[in-house]
Structure formats: C-alpha cells, structure tokens
C-alpha cells in the first residue's frame, strides 16, 4: 500500500516551451520538487500529440510557441479532458491570462518565476481539475454543468470568506455535505448562496 501511495505521489508532467534553456530549468525544478517529467516539446502541436500519447497528470504550456501556440494547445488538451493545464506567460502578456482561462487553463505562471511559484500553481491546477471532474460526473448536460460550476465556485468563495477555509477545504465541505444529505453539490451550493443572500438583506 505504501509503495502504491509513494508511486501515486509522483505526478507525471509534460512540458512544452520553445526556449530550450527555460525548458531545461523547468524540468530540473520539477524533478527537484518530486515530479516526473515524462515528455518535452518545443511547439504546441507536438505537445498535444505527446499529451494524447502519454496521458500525463499535468501539462505546462508556454503561450508563445511555433506551429500551434499554447492557447490553442490548451484548448485541445483541456477540451479533450486529457490533463489539467498550467500556462506560462511573460509579464507583458497578462492580457492573455483571461484567454488562457477560456481555453481551459487551470492556473498560470508569470515568467520569470521561482521554484517556490511552481508547486502552488501545479497544486491549484490539479485540485481544480479534480473538482471539475467530480462535478462533471454528477451532471450530464453542458449548460447544467456550467451552471453547477458557477454555483459551486460562488459557494466556495462564501465558505472561504466566512470560515477562513482554503479552496480545497471549501470544495471538500460541499462535497461531503452533499453526500451526507443525499443532495447534489449544486443543491448544497445553492443553499449556501441563498443563506448568504438572506443574511445580506437589510431587516424590514
């Protein structure tokens, strides 16, 4: 059992970055932090192909790459539910962050970044991806799925503000409450939001 857990701890990461030196640095940082670098690419098209072949736990994509840029690659990888995506962006490309989110990126890193920035971004991406997977297994239709995600996101925010919870703690609380009361996570989220609105209303 311990061996399985130790194996499960080492997340498999694919890196796509057209600048070889940055790619090398990134791979080194990841290995030092206990991740397995299972593939490297210098362009978005190769990144998508490797992601489909290797099925990594996480893909790190630079925005500016030849053949296919990181945003288009993120759309393919995230859209195909292959793996969570972390986007690398230069400081001057902050306007692209929203486009990266729309493309399905779960987190982003602004270059130049430190090793201490890397792990939190990866953990956020993995955590958000697993949350979305849980929500999607609960809801079939696309519209309903998006509405559920919106409600749960807002309810998480309420719990984080009110009870000083972290994002994963808030999600787990909603998930556990839904299981305990045989409700959907959307129902729990909507109830949290309704209570918050009732509290916010001025007394008559």
Automatic annotation (TrEMBL):
<dbReference type="Pfam" id="PF00072">
    <property type="entry name" value="Response_reg"/>
</dbReference>
<dbReference type="Pfam" id="PF03861">
    <property type="entry name" value="ANTAR"/>
</dbReference>
<protein>
    <submittedName>
        <fullName>Transcriptional regulator</fullName>
    </submittedName>
</protein>
<dbReference type="InterPro" id="IPR005561">
    <property type="entry name" value="ANTAR"/>
</dbReference>
<dbReference type="InterPro" id="IPR036388">
    <property type="entry name" value="WH-like_DNA-bd_sf"/>
</dbReference>
<feature type="domain" description="ANTAR">
    <location>
        <begin position="132"/>
        <end position="193"/>
    </location>
</feature>
<keyword id="KW-0597">Phosphoprotein</keyword>
<feature type="domain" description="Response regulatory">
    <location>
        <begin position="12"/>
        <end position="126"/>
    </location>
</feature>
<dbReference type="InterPro" id="IPR008327">
    <property type="entry name" value="Sig_transdc_resp-reg_antiterm"/>
</dbReference>
<dbReference type="InterPro" id="IPR001789">
    <property type="entry name" value="Sig_transdc_resp-reg_receiver"/>
</dbReference>
<dbReference type="InterPro" id="IPR011006">
    <property type="entry name" value="CheY-like_superfamily"/>
</dbReference>
<feature type="modified residue" description="4-aspartylphosphate">
    <location>
        <position position="62"/>
    </location>
</feature>
């Amino acid at each position: 059992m311990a061996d399985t857990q130790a194996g499960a701890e080492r997340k498999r990461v694919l890196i796509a970055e057209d600048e070889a030196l940055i790619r090398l640095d990134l791979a080194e940082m990841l290995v030092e932090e206990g991740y397995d670098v299972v593939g490297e690419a210098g362009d978005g098209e190769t990144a998508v192909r490797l992601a489909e072949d290797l099925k990594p736990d996480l893909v790190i994509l630079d925005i500016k790459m030849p053949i296919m840029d990181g945003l288009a690659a993120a759309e393919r990888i995230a859209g195909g539910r292959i793996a969570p995506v972390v986007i690398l962006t230069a400081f001057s490309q902050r306007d692209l962050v929203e486009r990266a989110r729309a493309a399905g990126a779960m987190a982003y890193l602004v270059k130049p970044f430190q090793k201490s920035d890397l792990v939190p971004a990866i953990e956020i991406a993995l955590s958000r991806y697993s949350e979305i997977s849980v929500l999607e297994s609960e809801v079939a239709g696309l519209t309903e799925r998006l509405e559920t995600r919106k409600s749960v996101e807002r309810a998480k925010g309420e719990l984080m503000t009110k009870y000083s919870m972290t994002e994963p703690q808030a999600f787990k609380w909603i998930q556990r409450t839904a299981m305990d009361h045989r409700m959907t996570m959307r129902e729990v989220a909507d109830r949290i939001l309704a209570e918050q609105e009732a509290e916010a209303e001025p007394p008559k």
